[in-house]
Write a structure and sequence with these properties.
Elements: H1 6-11, E1 16-20, E2 24-25, H2 37-50, E3 56-60, E4 68-72, H3 74-82, E5 87-92, H4 98-113, H5 120-131, H6 137-150, H7 161-168, H8 172-181, H9 186-193, H10 199-205, H11 210-219, H12 234-249, H13 256-264, H14 278-284, H15 290-310
Parallel strand pairs: 2-4, 3-5
Antiparallel strand pairs: 1-5, 3-4
Helix pairs in contact: 2-3, 4-6, 5-8, 8-10, 10-12, 12-13
C-alpha cells in the first residue's frame, strides 16, 4: 500500500476519523477493477497484522443517506471487510462537485497503480476525462497536487493537453485512439480488456450507435460470458462503421442480420510475393519478360526436385 504523508494531510486541514466499514459504499461511478487473487490476499493479511496504515478518502454520500462514498481506497476498504475490521481510518471531503470527486478517483488510481497497469477500458476512460472540458483545470490541478502530497510526492503544476502523450509514454495517435474507444459500451470494451478485439478495430466500432453496439454484443457473445463468438478484424469493423453511416443517412439502425453478413465474410489473404535478389536478377533475367522469368523458375524448380528424388 502507498504510504500517505500525514504532515501534508494535517497542513491541509484533513481530519482522520474512524468510520464503520458498513457505512462506506463504493463511488457510484467507480470503473476500476479491485485486487483479486494473491494481491488481494496479501493486502488482507497485512491489514490483519498491521491494520489500515493509510487512511482512505471519502465524502458524505450525495444521495442523502447516512453513508460515505469512497473516493480513494476501495481496495483497502474491501480487504478490511475481508479481514474482519469494524472500522477504517478515513479522511472526509466536504462539498465536492461531481467533477472534483471523479478527479480524486481517477488521479489516485493513476498514482497508485500506474497507467500501464490499467485495463484498456480504464485507460480510455481516464484519458477521455482528462480531455473533457467539464473539468475546471485550476481546481483539478489543486486536487492532483493534494493527492500527490498525500502520497509524499512533490507538487505538480498539472498536465496540459500538450504533455499528456509525453506523460504516459504514448504517441499522440494512441491518445487519440483511447479517447475514441472511450465511446464504446462497457460490453464492447470488455472484448478489448480480454484481448479479443484490437484497439484499431475498437476505434472503428466506436462509430456505431450505442444501440448498434448492444446488438453486436448480443449476436457475437458466447452464452453472455463476455467472450467473442466470431473474431472481428479491423477491416470488418471498418465495414460495419460504413454500413452504420449509410443507415444513419436514412435514419435507420444497423440490423443484426447485416452485422452477421459482415462477420461471416473472411477476406482472402493476398498471394505471397517472392522477390529475386538484385544480383541474381542482373545475372540471369535482365533481358527477360515476366512470363519468361516465371517459366525459367518453374523449369529450374522442376529439375531441382527431380534431382532430389533420384538422389
Amino acid at each position: 500500500m502507498t504510504g500517505f504523508n500525514f504532515e501534508a494531510m494535517l497542513s491541509q486541514n484533513n481530519q482522520i476519523k474512524q468510520i464503520p466499514v458498513d457505512m462506506l459504499v463504493p463511488y457510484h461511478n467507480h470503473q476500476y477493477s479491485l485486487y483479486d487473487g494473491e494481491r488481494r490476499d496479501d493486502m488482507v493479511e497485512s491489514i490483519r497484522k498491521n491494520g489500515v496504515i493509510s487512511p482512505i478518502v471519502c465524502r458524505p454520500n450525495p444521495d442523502g443517506t447516512d453513508t460515505y462514498e469512497i473516493l480513494i481506497g476501495h481496495n483497502r476498504w474491501n480487504c478490511s471487510k475481508l479481514a474482519g475490521l469494524d472500522t477504517i481510518p478515513a479522511i472526509i471531503k466536504e462539498k465536492l462537485t461531481e467533477e472534483e470527486a471523479q478527479t480524486y478517483v481517477d488521479e489516485s488510481n493513476l498514482l497508485q497503480r500506474g497507467f500501464n497497469d490499467l485495463k484498456i477500458s480504464e485507460q480510455a476512460r481516464i484519458i477521455a476525462r482528462r480531455y473533457s472540458e467539464m473539468f475546471s483545470q485550476g481546481k483539478r490541478n489543486d486536487i492532483i497536487n493534494e493527492i500527490r502530497a498525500l502520497n509524499g510526492e512533490s507538487d505538480s503544476k498539472g498536465n496540459s493537453r500538450e504533455k499528456v502523450a509525453e506523460e504516459y509514454g504514448l504517441s499522440r495517435n494512441t491518445i487519440a485512439r483511447l479517447v475514441r474507444i472511450s465511446k464504446l459500451t462497457d460490453c464492447i470494451l470488455q472484448w478489448l480488456d480480454l484481448g479479443e478485439l484490437s484497439i484499431r478495430a475498437g476505434v472503428e466500432l466506436s462509430y456505431l450507435t450505442e444501440c448498434e453496439q448492444d446488438i453486436l454484443w448480443q449476436i457475437n457473445t458466447v452464452d453472455n460470458s463476455g467472450h467473442m463468438l466470431m473474431k472481428i478484424s479491423e477491416s470488418q469493423a471498418r465495414d460495419l462503421r460504413v454500413l452504420s453511416a449509410d443507415c444513419k443517412k436514412e435514419s435507420l439502425e444497423l440490423s443484426g442480420n447485416q452485422m452477421l453478413k459482415v462477420l461471416a465474410i473472411k477476406k482472402k489473404k493476398p498471394d505471397k510475393k517472392i522477390a529475386i535478389n538484385p544480383n541474381t536478377y542482373k545475372k540471369y533475367f535482365t533481358d527477360k519478360s515476366n512470363d519468361e522469368i516465371q517459366q525459367i523458375v518453374e523449369q529450374a524448380l522442376e529439375m531441382y526436385y527431380n534431382d532430389r528424388k533420384d538422389a
